[in-house]
């Protein structure tokens, strides 16, 4: 495709997240437009389609992937269908940005890693948007320049205001903790070797039987430790805080959410971001813009990824699987992953986790 | 022009600011591309043009404005030529986004206000980018909802790291304080009636004869007061802080610049933004995206402004002129402005300062 | 007096402030106890006296000063009687800690300076307690070590939650701004040369006719400038903030009042100190402990002051007098002070303002 | 003893901590003075004694306890001798403030609890000074008033700048973590049921073989969880941070240590407290003042404790013992404690941990 022509994107799944992406691509991203919209609900597809004049509606997701004037695919469909849709994109040779998770189990994710490696070019990007957040980028840079010394520990808090009553204890790990799992791999640059999920007194805001909050401990290959407080019904707002503690100092991001410091009778303070879209809006924009740019740059035969790839999706899935077993058994569980070396060149080469390139 | 076709923009003046705008429009803004570049320096024009494949170089700025496949003009030329180039845009009926100042004197700005009023549609937007900064937007919203009660005072600090040795004391007002002048009008929603420029002990970092810092007092129509500390050679980084003090509380923005809070031996803290591009990058992007969207929406006969207009440019010029006299006379100077009512419908109608619409 | 024997203190005036001092001396200060209490109201004297078992009540303040087993006097009587009571202490050769102001006019204060100079030893300390506040001490130290470079400006905010409806516009200066006047002299180490009192839109919380808030500009001998926002009916709590802006950086104290940073639904923040006793409790304790220690150290013939002295009380009174004229005339007023050199050794020697020694 | 007479205190052990206490009692505490000093080193005793004119030196600690004009004892001797010295105080019927730990093992501490219970009055206070820190008091109050909702988790960071090379991994628990153990019991008001000591990658600043940092997990009776990062060689300064996360919000203390927020080229921030004396000076002063007041109030037959008592010392010792086993075994260890009900009235009655009364 020509560099001066807009990238034509099919967006599959236009619930909250997918509708956001349609709006983002059509109104804020340079060099791309949405040409196909697909959703299991024809009403929802029509409603979002009405905001995107150039887009045609295609009911079947696999047909949508195959449409000729689609250059790339953005997947915001339900988790359960991610793996097969990503494989269809690979089969069609089309770049895909898949919202997390890449697959609901480690095996499904590994299969994608293998197929992409066989193709010999990187086409699969996974939506771990925190890697594009300016705060996370700065924290990463402090670590990489050695300003903090060798990192020894990380402390994370991840507080969602509220979730659907259907959320179960395992979903807390696969939907929420998965972000800290990827952030740990991104920031520390190594794989996670073991996970322990602890069960503090549950909040009375949580549905009966839901373990909320959870306290998760990760251990990396070289023995660094990460503790994660995760709430899905914190009730307070959306707070994501990460502190890296190194040999020469520590650094924290996400402490004060809110731009304005104000006083009122008796108190000072500010506003907590209500949700993830307000907190990570900039990160989503950067993620999609850089993905679009990477596809323009990669062209018809090069790599089309700028960010976390299929291997990162696989690693996250493997750690989540171990986390769910820890939740069930109350034990520390070691993570079961294939060595990265057995995968060929792409999928994402090298021993280290994928980095934005 | 069609809504689905990219807006074709001529960028006049591609120094630091203009080159930024070229990059912004071509790489981050949806629905626009740069088709013409013009600069007094052919080398600079060629250099920036090389990064913008679709753009042709046109040496003469007035020819550039007139090029047929130019839908709109972004002016980042030297201040002295702004007024005549804006008038040329009006003459051609083309929307223009003019970096501040609109004109170097109040008379020049008033002439633009009158011409635009005669045209009957708003085509002139002025580059007071702070109005698009999320922090300023939030502060404005706190005032407008009445959460702070009636605003009584504002305290501003505006610290530039360093300026060219050619900067003189009057330029401190027209280049730097002008932003607080517009922010005052934007936040408080009324005109400035008087200005006093005080002269504290000059910094030894300032060139001989340069009054740096300055302490400026503004008084609004209803008697609110604003104090402004302005440095052009603060040496520390780029800090812009604004506090509004109301009857029911106060609110401050810009206190902690820097995303990461870190510790190192003996101290905690963070990084100060090095310059205005890092501090206001988001605001510039929003400003240009909303300008582009406004032109798409306005079409060939509607208003093409979303933000501060020609009247705001005139008001700022009038206050700056009074400020320069205060600097010379050491006195409090009342601002000399025509009543807004004598201007016709556009230019920007109504008694209040222009607001983003 | 012996170093191992408790200093016997007469407290004159036991309203809110004096009663606090009685409690402080008897319960938290080492090496002193209250032996005499005097107040114009016999009921109030009896009530406070009941909390201080060792103290006798003496109705007449001059008799109280003269009581034989009184080693030192703490004055918390109404401002109008300060000067004559301080003179009586000097006459009796007894050290005195006088709550501000030292006198209600500059002439009265100057008379005290002269009398003390004749005595040849320093016996008069004035209750500018901010000099003993750890935050002010640290700010002073940053200035004195040169870490901020040459100070060029100061920005102050002084917000009282509410005052008696009898408070008039001049009292805003003599009771509230007087603290910033002393803090300026303490921090910058030079005299104030001119004062301008500006009148922003009054708050609707202020009584009819009361100019509240006020915006005060001080100019020092070397041309540094200080702006002071002062509220006596801010309604929010007690906030005292000071920022010193120097050639190499700035430093601010008093920004976040409140020890705990907390979140609640939608917001983060903390508590604002309700009043001056909570904010400056540590400073009052340190002030009195150091005064007691100074008297133990000074003995019967040495200096008995550790903190601001009579000259500081005089300087503050002179600046306040000019401030009240500025309030009346709407003009900038130069401060009228005798040169310090015409006063003899004590009163407090040297050209610089008194410093804690 | 009479209420108006100074409490006569023997200070045993005048190393850094004990010498501080001598100075504190003689110079800042109302109603007490040091009359006896004892130390294993005659030189050190003489040196500190020289600063305390009224004090006699008594070499033998048990003789020092027995001296007739000693009303109360403050123990700052090495940990190994605490238990027997506290028992001697109980035997002599003299109130004692014992620096932590109360005893080096749980059995020794339990013996003290039993003896005190037999006496029928509370004479033993333990030096967990954090309970007297204004920040901890405010956090406690937020919990007790229900403002945070039910507390579910606590996150602690405890970073010491550096320790003696002789410090071993178990001492990290008994000297440092012991403060978080007491703070957990104080803040949450219940006993700790289990402890797990995890071993992150050690810092290169730590001596060979020292597990530094450690990551400790506490579980309370009702299932709340506390994670504690502890460093003894953090190198950065002294940081103590505690966050309580409740069902309705969270609260954090100790984040910004340092009174002044300053800027310098490129950065903003402040100073980290260099050590525990700067951080907790106010807490030590309050602790000793309240202990002295309690003894004045208790007189010859009442309770002489205002703060953590012998049961708190026992509970801390029991949790530390379990922690050391966890460190050795890499396992989660349940805490072995006698039920509080089997102890009689004193020792400290009731099922809840001792609270300041």
From TrEMBL, chains A, B, C, D:
Coiled coil: none annotated. Pfam families: GFO_IDH_MocA (PF01408), GFO_IDH_MocA_C (PF02894). This is Inositol 2-dehydrogenase. SUPFAM superfamilies: Glyceraldehyde-3-phosphate dehydrogenase-like, C-terminal domain, NAD(P)-binding Rossmann-fold domains. Belongs to the Gfo/Idh/MocA family. Involved in the oxidation of myo-inositol (MI) to 2-keto-myo-inositol (2KMI or 2-inosose). Residues 140-329 form the Gfo/Idh/MocA-like oxidoreductase C-terminal domain. Keywords: NAD, Oxidoreductase. It comes from Rhodococcus daqingensis. The keyword Nucleotide-binding does not apply. Residues 7-128 form the Gfo/Idh/MocA-like oxidoreductase N-terminal domain. It is an enzyme of class 1 (oxidoreductase). Homotetramer. It catalyses: myo-inositol + NAD(+) = scyllo-inosose + NADH + H(+). Gene3D superfamilies: Dihydrodipicolinate Reductase, domain 2, NAD(P)-binding Rossmann-like Domain. It comes from the Bacteria.
């Amino acid at each position: 495709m020509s560099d001066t022509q807009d990238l034509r994107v099919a967006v599959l799944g236009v619930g909250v997240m997918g509708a956001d992406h349609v709006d983002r691509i059509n109104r804020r991203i340079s060099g791309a437009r949405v040409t196909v919209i697909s959703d299991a609900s024809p009403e929802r597809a029509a409603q979002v389609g009405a905001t995107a004049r150039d887009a045609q509606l295609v009911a079947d997701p696999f047909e949508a992937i195959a449409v000729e004037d689609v250059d790339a695919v953005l997947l915001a469909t339900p988790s359960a269908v991610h793996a097969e849709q990503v494989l269809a994109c690979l089969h069609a040779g089309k770049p895909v940005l898949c919202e997390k998770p890449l697959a609901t189990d480690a095996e499904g994710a590994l299969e994608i890693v293998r197929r992409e490696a066989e193709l010999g070019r990187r086409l699969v990007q996974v939506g771990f948007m925190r890697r594009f957040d300016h705060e996370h980028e700065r924290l990463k840079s402090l670590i990489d320049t050695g300003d903090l010394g060798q990192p020894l520990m990380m402390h994370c808090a991840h507080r969602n205001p509220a979730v659907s009553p259907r959320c179960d204890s395992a979903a807390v790990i696969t939907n929420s903790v998965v972000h800290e799992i990827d952030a740990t791999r991104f920031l520390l640059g190594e794989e996670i070797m073991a996970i322990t999920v602890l069960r503090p007194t549950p909040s009375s805001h949580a549905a009966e039987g839901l373990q909320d909050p959870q306290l998760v401990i990760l251990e990396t290959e070289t023995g660094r430790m990460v503790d994660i407080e995760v709430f899905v019904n914190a009730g307070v707002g959306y707070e994501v805080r990460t502190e890296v503690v190194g040999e020469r100092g520590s650094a924290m991001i996400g402490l004060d959410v809110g731009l304005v410091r104000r006083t009122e009778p008796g108190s000072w303070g500010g506003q907590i971001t209500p949700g993830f879209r307000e907190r990570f809006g900039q990160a989503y924009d950067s993620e999609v813009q850089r993905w679009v740019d990477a596809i323009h740059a990669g062209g018809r035969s090069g790599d089309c990824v700028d960010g976390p790839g299929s291997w990162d999706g696989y690693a996250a899935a493997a750690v989540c699987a171990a986390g769910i077993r820890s939740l069930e058994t109350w034990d520390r569980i070691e993570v079961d992953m294939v060595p990265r070396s057995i995968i060929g060149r792409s999928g994402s080469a090298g021993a280290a986790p994928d980095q934005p390139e």
